[in-house]
Design goal:
278 residues; alpha/beta; nine-stranded mixed β-sheet; two-stranded antiparallel sheet; 8 helices
Length: 278
């Protein structure tokens, strides 16, 4: 872990020293962090960048997210462009914001940027009727008509919020408790739970849920290296595995995202032949 963190820091320092354009430097940092996370992800997950849409609010679209952690087993984008993609919330289990340097203003700005996305908990899937009937999904209670077996059933579930992580190459703080204070205050103010914030050579920080008002967040942290680096990666893996296991025959309802309103026409040569005989 010490060696891998050193490799990462060398790459980030090189990008910061050589690339003067802020946008290109930022994209390079995102690529390096995405590559790091991707090395440890199980095969059902992938790292990408782009926007998120949700059927919970069809007119809403997230801001562009630096790194999206997506389901690669059945998740797919809604739209693909040369530099980015648009994903349905059903395909997104987490995301990471990446910045060169974090301070109080930057942390508040990025928490505000992702606040809407963190609140999206409704996910809709489409199932074959036979499976939906077996699972007791609403709408399949009555005895099935033979034609029902060919139908598909849409079902909406409430699941966890997407898991939110933050990677900063450098920090304005010199004392870990100073960052803790700002992280707790920002989480309270924005209503955003951060599952992990990592600053190389400084520490790993994460919100801990508090169930006694008025506070909703406390902060846990590690400063020893490479323990903090290991904790960052470990927390990502554990958080992604906490989502509901989606059945293998579930699909994302692309037709609903596309708002298809047309009805299928039907044609059967047998009907044509019968009409001709009459």
């Amino acid at each position: 872990m010490s060696s891998r963190q050193a490799d990462l820091l060398n790459s980030l320092r090189k990008a910061s020293a050589i690339i003067e354009h802020d946008g290109e430097r930022g994209r390079n940092l995102e690529t390096e962090v995405g590559r790091l996370i991707g090395e440890y992800l199980p095969g059902i997950f992938a790292v990408d960048t782009g926007f998120v849409r949700s059927l919970e609010d069809p007119d809403w679209q997230s801001n562009q997210i630096d790194l999206l952690l997506t389901r690669s087993d059945f998740g797919h984008p809604l739209a693909v462009f040369p530099e980015t993609k648009v994903y349905p919330i059903e395909a997104v289990v987490g995301f990471v914001e990446v910045t060169k340097r974090v301070d109080k203003r930057k942390l508040e700005e990025d928490f505000r940027k992702v606040r809407d996305l963190k609140q999206k908990t409704q996910r809709t899937y489409v199932f074959p009727y036979s499976f939906a009937k077996t699972m007791g999904i609403p709408g399949t209670e009555a005895p099935p008509d033979p034609s029902d077996m060919l139908k598909k059933v849409y079902a909406t579930f409430t699941d966890l919020e997407p898991r939110f992580f933050y990677f900063a190459f450098e920090s304005d703080w010199t004392e870990a408790t100073s960052l803790c204070r700002v992280l707790q205050e920002t989480g309270e103010e924005m209503g955003v739970h951060c599952h992990g914030l990592f600053v190389p050579e400084f520490g790993f920080f994460m919100h801990k849920a508090v169930f006694e008002p008025p506070s909703r967040h406390a902060v846990k942290y590690l400063t020893a290296m490479p323990d903090a680096f290991t904790a960052f990666l470990s927390q990502i893996l554990e958080a992604l595995q906490s989502f509901t296991v989606i059945p293998s025959n579930a699909a994302i309802p692309l037709d609903r995202y596309a708002a298809i309103s047309s009805q299928f026409m039907e044609w059967d040569i047998r009907e044509t032949e019968r009409a001709g005989k009459v």
